[in-house]
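Entry:
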Amino acid sequence: MCSMRIRIWASAILLGVSIVGHAEEQPDPITLVKVNEFPVTNLHFALFASQTGRNPEDAQGQIALLNELVNNIMVANSAQGMALAKDPEVVAALEVASARLIAQAFVRTLLDSIKIDEERLRAVYDTQYASGGHEYKARHILLETEEDAKAVIIELDGGADFATLARERSIGPSKSSGGELGWFEADQMVSEFSDATRTMSDGSYSKTPVQTRFGWHVILREESRELPPSEFESVKPEIEKQLQQQQIAKTIEQIRDDTRIEVQEAESTE
């Protein structure tokens, strides 16, 4: 009887998945199967298909997937499943999964509600994008210690070839190409490297070692060029996303301000 009912509903599942995709048009779930008195709806099926990464379009594949979902719900609602649901680890896993799902739904809902007007988008564009930027072409020699970097600078001062020293001394992945980094915008590099590159002139190398989290660098700025400003329409989606993320962060911060969070001290094992 149950198998027959699943086969009857197989053609309705396609409709069910479509309804889930357009919940604002037809939000009421459609019951596909009942497991005891628990209704398994098109919404359950669509979510299960999404979570398992499967989306069969043929009736046989949908029947198999629906049977798998029914088995999951059947086991979860059985006496054995209900007993396992009280296990502390399972309880914690359910709480975490529930919190994540609700938080994700919260962010999606918030994103749908955030409307950024054109004037605000233009203001960000004028501040961050309208003036264009700069690109730099550089090489570097990465070394383990400041003393090693200073020794390289002394050799460069004596007329040594930068690319040759990079191949011989650098510990970075670019050593095989003579330390070549190609063209990059400053913000593509770590801040210490970017700041040093900006202050140099074309054709010059750093006279003092530059430290980053990767080690000690000697930098040769070979060339630089100005970049034309991006067209407003091309960066508009990026600006909109940036402002939406700022609004989401602000909203979450407001929720945090209204929440009492207490860090508990670990109990002594002695």
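The beta strands are 31-35, 38-41, 133-143, 180-185, 204-205, 210-212, 215-227.
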